[in-house]
Structure formats: C-alpha cells, structure tokens
Specification:
This protein is mostly helical. The chain has one domain. The longest helix is centred in the first third of the chain and has 23 residues. It starts with 8 loop residues before the first helix and ends with a helix.
Length: 66
C-alpha cells in the first residue's frame, strides 16, 4: 500500500519501450535488404566470423606477395 516502494517503476516502462522499439526495427528489417557483408546484422552470422574471414584474407594476401 506504500507508493514509495515503487521508485524503480520507470525501469519497467523502459523495458516495454525497448520491446516496442525492437518490434519496429524487426518490421523494418523485413522491408530493407541487408547486405550479406553485414555480419552482425544477419541471422547465423556473427562479428567473430567477419574477423576470422578478414584474418584469412590477410594471410592469403601475405602468401601471395611472397
């Protein structure tokens, strides 16, 4: 019955706002084509995959120079 116990209620509202924002972004994702080079934004691809690919490219170009 004390209203003073709910001082952190704004955080709960922020979570709902972020869920709404996420849904908006997800609906935009269906409308906009994301290039396959954008590893962090494609399902099944991570930024570590991009780093590994870059390292392979650098090693290949190093061997090619020699």
């Amino acid at each position: 019955m004390e209203c003073g116990k709910y001082i952190y209620r704004g955080i709960g509202l922020l979570e709902n706002g972020m869920k709404l924002f996420e849904k908006v972004l997800e609906s935009l994702r269906k409308l906009i084509k994301v290039d396959c080079q954008q590893f962090g934004f494609c399902p099944g691809r991570s930024t570590t995959d991009a780093i590994f690919t870059r390292q392979l490219q650098e090693k290949f170009s190093e061997k090619r120079r020699n």
